[in-house]
Design brief:
The complex is a heterodimer. By secondary structure, chain A is α/β, with parallel strands linked by helices. A seven-stranded mixed sheet of chain A has the order 1-11-18-17-14-16-15, sandwiched between helices. A seven-stranded parallel sheet of chain A has the order 6-7-5-8-9-4-10, with helices on both faces. In chain A, helix 4 packs parallel to helix 5 and helix 23 crosses helix 25. Chain A starts with a helix and ends with a helix. By secondary structure, chain B is α/β, with parallel strands linked by helices. Chain B has 16 helices and seven strands. Chain B has a seven-stranded mixed sheet, sandwiched between helices. In chain B, a hairpin with a 2-residue loop joins strand 4 and strand 5. In chain B, helix 6 packs across helix 7 and helix 15 packs antiparallel against helix 16. The N and C termini of chain B lie far apart (100 Å). Classes of the chains: A alpha/beta, B alpha/beta. At the A-B interface, helix 18, helix 19, strand 20 and strand 21 of A face helix 1, helix 5 and helix 8 of B.
């Protein structure tokens, strides 16, 4: 049975059918081919022909044309459309023509780098032209390193290694930098927010080192479909970029289904567990014989789904190896074995985390089941793209969880289907981020007076470093003048400032009991102080790479959080009492709902936390948080209710309505900004002393901001529209955690009030029962 | 808002402020007791001194070549360049540079010592040109840990200044490695200061601690007051003078096998072994072996070694060398002595059993030794974990010796 037949069978079940909120046939596309360009060397042409490629897809040819003539290029294409060839083709062509030239490939993770190595090595072996490709990362054995530095034609690494191990030692990489012709950045859309802002600065440093050695490489980038790939690429490399976004790869038709589990408690808006529903649907595909991939959002989900599916199908098929797990933490050998099994068809089902989402080649499945929205539309398409064979229609099912964002998409799939609303945003000029990299860059190459750092003018910052005794100015040049190694003080995944260090104590405990020597306490990450207050307080459940950790103790004085892995069915959510002071308003537009953006100082106090059960979102406990107040200087977008409107609301209505709308805004904003809702903070104020009226602030939670809030200002109307849509589409009675959050007040209909506030923009508000009373007052 | 305030409000701690002063080469030279010189790239500061060379052994060029890891290469004494750098940090990377380099050469007139001082990062070019020229004039280089530290650092700076690195491409005798071989058993830590004190018997007095050196230079850069550099310059000078003395000391040890302490002589034996000088190594070990029977009783030694342990290990080495040289009986005799004398003689037992089984053809005696060793080892219980390889070997051996011998038909 094909996947489509299984789906049609499922749809005969009335209760299933009732939950289907989208059933869309996405038509297939025929390939747009072009001849292999004349510039591709004969040897490469023959190798491609031997692999059955006598023509190129149009986007590959377009990318080649741009990149091989030295234009910086970003290729925007879906999964399985041959994007790796789009950058390998110009690179290998050049390497064949000029054997001294070099290329640097950047991937966001080590696993992806390994994967690319496998593919490229195979191609190079067939070419048999002595092109050497290597990965260079923390796992590279020390004795192999010097050979890679000297002789690797293609060095495959990640931004963290480039930042901390390659650039600060660039004289050891003389050959690479003198002959660097291409820099490839794959999965560009992964570099957004803090990570992207750091990468922008690492690229500034790379530009300076290349300039020092007289090279000027061409950047070839690949991105999933987002709203602004060209802008993102341009912001990161700070050069003009050619955008190649017409996909020439063929695809078979695909049925796309959004399934929203039925409501089991209308009052609280509780739906049946998306995990159980995903299991049920995946089982149906497997039983029908369709090769299926299931995506869970965390390691925990993957393990649960896997054990259930193994149980359900191991007996029937008599072979437990038919269904496999696939996530971060598996050894490369294991992964290769699973991938082979999938390609040969021996493995019938695979349950994966998003480790598989980014470009790893496992062949093509017949069905994909997504347990919950993966967090961004780009990721969703990448996961769905895992199903889709050329010769038969495939099926993708997304099972919505009761998270607000999932529910938003369940009720408004048109956001998903229309052109992508997601923006990859970065701000390489974030002062703290830039200052750290300026130090690293000064360490790498002295700055002549007047030299820019990217688009930024570093003069004032260099002067500051000199005042602090880290830089030395002499004869019109700035020199590094400290015994520190600045790159080691920057983690690309967080903003500089005094962070809270997260320490896993689980191994330390076992070391005390057993005969093993050195204590095994292990630092697993860092978090800025502001976020730590609500995410790392005592008794918080902290999620790290899909693993749950319980925070045993947060030592605020020492800025250390001691955690241990646990396996629980709840998460914690902390409340923050925040007051916002506007430091500077950059722009504002009056209206019924004013909008503005600028710099703010957020003073915040974490107050209490709740334990909330997964899936049902019921509160199963709470506790106080005892931490001092912290200040955050960041960028914010805010909206203020205009005066004519304000007078029509009672104070209680405003309080409840603003709170509800603020909760919704945080979630809808996260859709447009492709970020985690927790990257944003909200502060509703019935009467803000700053704006003089009822105001909602939505701010970047990273010190200094990473570009999120200015974009919210631009997206104001769409944001409010989407928020209104989310609230209106939620089937709950008076508001629930899936829309405005759990706000219960007997006297006010919080849901209706928040909706009215959100819609005021369109002028469609009509005062109703309670509103009329307030309006008359 | 001022930049500083902005950064503070973003959560970055405030730092003290400094104000730079004007560069003055003549004042620098005067303060450190050097002079300003010019080359094609500009001005630099050098301190030059001619020191008397102490009485020393006849130079063994081949031995020096061997110490440099280049057996068969003969180094000339007047071609040696003893050098050492002082740097702006220990973390490495292209932002770390050296601001002081001492280079000492032996000549008929004495020990000619030049110390090059970097007056300012902006004047690195003439500084490097002078340094590279002087290093390049040497036939070979002598350093302490220079192979992994100083030499790559100098190379990096030359590359950054777009200069050739040929001045470093010559035989490099890094004394750290032979010193480790010879003295590690006794000294533990082999940093140059410790070696000076324990091997050369020299006391540095109040030497500046290494970790303070970068700050002394940065302090000079900020204030242009070069007085803080003087202790660094003295330290650097001392390092190079010691290098020369240390090389003499090593040569004497190699020539005369006269190291004072048994642990040092053990190190010498191992070094001779590594050189392939089996006969000379055997001589050193034999001396130690005979001495051990007579006069080490009750001695307390520095480091982790006890006389009993050293005697055991020396015995094992000597027995092995005897066997290799064909002195089968002499080897067996030592193995037997070790077997009887040492409290945990597993390795000696195996050696003896091998001899009994394969040479003496006395399977019963071999089995007796193996069984006794096995019994004692197994009685150690969990403490035998560290001896696992012996346990496995003995069990295999015991099993084979117990099997009736099958003769090929």
């Amino acid at each position: 049975m094909g996947a489509v037949e299984v789906l049609d069978n499922l749809l005969r079940d009335r209760s299933f059918k009732a939950g289907v909120v989208l059933d869309e046939l996405i038509p297939g596309r025929t390939a747009a081919y072009e001849e292999i360009p004349a510039g591709v060397p004969a040897r490469l042409r023959q190798t491609l022909a031997a692999r059955g490629m006598s023509r190129l897809y149009s986007h590959q040819a377009e990318a080649y044309a741009a990149a091989s003539t030295g234009r910086h290029t970003v290729v925007v294409t879906p999964t399985a459309s041959g994007k790796t060839l789009a950058y390998n083709l110009p690179v290998l062509s050049r390497l064949l023509e000029q054997p001294h030239s070099r290329a640097l490939y950047l991937f966001p993770t080590k696993a992806l780098a390994q994967d690319q190595l496998a593919e490229l090595t195979e191609l190079c072996d067939r070419l048999d032209a002595g092109i050497r490709t290597h990965t260079y990362d923390g796992d590279t054995p020390p004795n192999a390193r010097s050979a890679i530095r000297e002789a690797g034609h293609v060095v495959i690494t990640n931004p963290d290694m480039l930042h901390a191990a390659i650039l600060p030692h660039h004289t050891k990489w003389l050959k690479l930098f003198q002959n660097l012709q291409f820099v490839v950045i794959d999965e560009l859309h992964a570099y957004r927010g803090v990570f992207g802002s750091h990468l922008g600065n690492v690229i500034r440093r790379l530009h300076r080192v290349c300039e020092f050695y007289g090279s000027s490489p061409t950047f070839v980038m690949a991105s999933a479909t987002i709203a602004n790939p060209g802008e993102l690429a341009q912001k990161i490399i700070e050069r003009d970029v050619v955008v190649v976004d017409r996909n020439g790869a063929p695809s078979a038709p695909r049925r796309l289904v959004f399934y929203n589990p039925p409501v089991v408690n209308a009052e609280l808006g509780i739906r049946r567990s998306s995990l159980l529903e995903s299991q049920r649907i995946a089982s149906a595909f497997l039983q029908g014989g369709a090769q299926t991939i299931v995506f869970g959002r965390s390691r925990l989900q993957v393990e649960i789904l896997l054990s259930y599916l193994k149980q359900a199908h191991g007996d029937r098929l008599g072979r437990s190896g038919d269904i496999r797990g696939y996530r971060g933490g598996y050894l490369p050998g294991q992964r290769r074995e699973i991938e082979r099994g999938l390609r040969s068809g021996q493995v019938r089902g695979v349950v994966a985390t998003n480790a598989l989402e980014l470009g790893i080649d496992v062949g093509q499945m017949q069905a994909a089941v997504l347990c919950g929205y993966p967090g961004s539309i780009a990721s969703t398409w990448q996961q769905l793209g895992r199903a889709g064979r050329r010769d038969e229609p495939s099926v993708g099912v997304m099972v919505c969880s009761s998270n607000p964002v999932d529910q938003f998409l369940a009720t408004h799939p048109e956001y998903f289907l229309s052109s992508s609303p997601e923006h990859g945003l970065v701000d390489p000029d974030n002062l703290l981020v830039m200052l750290g990299h300026l130090q690293a860059s000064l360490f790498e190459v002295p700055f002549p007076d007047g030299e820019a750092f990217g688009t930024a003018n570093p003069a004032e910052l260099l002067q500051l470093l000199e005042d602090e005794g880290q830089a030395h100015h002499s004869q019109h040049r700035w020199f590094w003048a400290s015994d520190a190694f600045p790159a080691s003080e920057i983690s690309l995944r967080s903003v500089l400032a005094e962070n809270v260090v997260i320490i896993d104590t689980s191994n330390a405990a076992s070391a005390a009991a057993g005969p093993l020597p050195n204590s095994g306490a292990r630092v697993i990450g860092e978090m800025d102080q502001f976020a730590a207050q609500t995410l790392l307080h005592d008794q918080a459940i902290y999620l790290h790479e899909g693993q749950q950790y319980h925070v045993d103790r947060l030592d605020w004085a020492e800025k250390k959080a001691y955690v241990r892995p646990v396996n629980v069915d709840y998460y914690t959510d902390a409340d923050r009492a925040a007051s916002v002071q506007v430091l500077e308003s950059f722009a504002s537009v009056p209206g019924d709902l004013w909008r503005a953006q600028g710099e703010v100082q957020v003073t915040s106090l974490a107050t209490i936390f709740k334990k909330i059960r997964y899936y049902t979102h019921e509160s199963i406990g709470a506790g106080p948080i005892d931490l001092p107040q912290v200040d955050l200087h960041t960028t914010s977008y805010w909206l203020r209710v205009g005066e004519e409107l304000t007078v029509t609301y009672s104070r209680l209505e405003l309080e409840v309505g603003l709170q509800g709308l603020a909760n919704v805004l945080r979630h809808t904003a996260s859709v447009f900004l492709m970020c985690d809702p927790r990257d944003l903070g909200v502060a509703p104020q019935v009467r803000s002393p700053q704006t003089g009226g009822p105001t909602i602030f939505v701010y970047d939670i990273f010190p200094g901001g990473v570009g999120l809030s200015p974009r919210l200002f631009d997206l104001h109307d769409r944001l409010l529209e989407a928020s209104a849509d989310l609230v209106a589409g939620c089937p709950c009675a008076n508001g629930c955690p899936s829309c405005i959050g759990a706000i219960f007040d007997r006297d006010v209909d919080a849901k209706a009030t928040a909706l009215r506030l959100a819609r005021r923009q369109k002028g469609s508000i009509r005062l109703e029962r309670k509103g009329a009373a307030a309006g008359a007052a | 808002m001022l930049l500083r305030e902005r950064l503070e409000s973003l959560g970055r701690a405030s730092q003290p402020r400094h104000r730079p002063a004007e560069l003055n080469l003549d004042r620098l030279a005067a303060t450190v007791g050097g002079e300003v010189r010019e080359n094609a790239s500009g001005a630099y500061v050098v301190i030059e001194e001619l020191l008397p060379l102490p009485p020393r052994p006849v130079f063994d060029g081949a031995g020096a070549g061997w110490l440099a890891g280049l057996p068969g290469v003969e180094l000339a004494e007047d071609g040696l360049g003893f050098f050492d750098t002082e740097t702006t940090g220990l973390s490495g990377g292209v932002g770390t540079s050296f601001f002081l380099l001492a280079l000492g050469r032996r000549s008929p007139a004495g020990f000619l010592l030049r110390q090059y001082v970097l007056p300012d990062p902006a004047l690195e070019d003439p500084f490097l040109e002078a340094v590279a020229g002087d290093l390049g004039a040497c036939q070979s280089l002598v350093s302490y840990n220079g192979r992994s530290f100083d030499s790559p650092l100098v190379e990096g700076r030359l590359l950054l200044s777009r200069r050739p690195t040929t001045c470093l491409e010559r035989p490099h005798l890094d004394l750290l490695h032979p010193v480790r071989r010879l003295y590690k058993a006794r000294l533990g830590a082999c940093n140059l200061q410790n070696v000076e004190a324990m091997v050369l018997g020299r006391d540095r007095g109040d030497d500046i601690p290494g970790y303070m050196i970068p700050e002394m230079y940065f302090s000079y850069l900020r204030t242009r007051d070069a007085r803080p550099l003087n202790p660094v310059i003295a330290h650097n000078r001392q390092d190079v003078v010691s290098l020369s003395l240390l090389l003499d000391r090593l040569m004497i040890s190699l020539r005369d096998h006269d190291a004072a302490h048994p642990l040092d002589r053990f190190g010498l034996g191992r070094m001779l072994e590594a050189m392939g000088e089996v006969e000379r190594a055997a001589m050193v070990y034999t001396g130690l072996w005979e001495e051990s029977e007579a006069c080490w009783n009750g001695e307390v030694w520095p480091g982790n070694w006890t006389p009993v342990e050293l005697a055991y290990v020396v015995g094992l080495r000597l027995a092995t060398l005897h066997r290799r040289r064909g002195a089968i009986e002499a080897g067996a005799e030592i193995a037997r002595a070790l077997w009887l004398r040492h409290p945990q003689p597993w390795e000696a037992g195996i050696m003896l059993a091998k001899h009994l089984e394969h040479r003496a053809r006395d399977r019963a005696a071999a089995l007796e030794v193996v069984s006794a060793a096995l019994e004692a080892l197994e009685a150690l219980d969990w403490r035998a974990v560290r001896e696992e390889r012996y346990l496995a070997d003995l069990r295999r051996r015991s099993e084979r010796l117990r099997r009736p011998r099958v003769r090929a038909a």
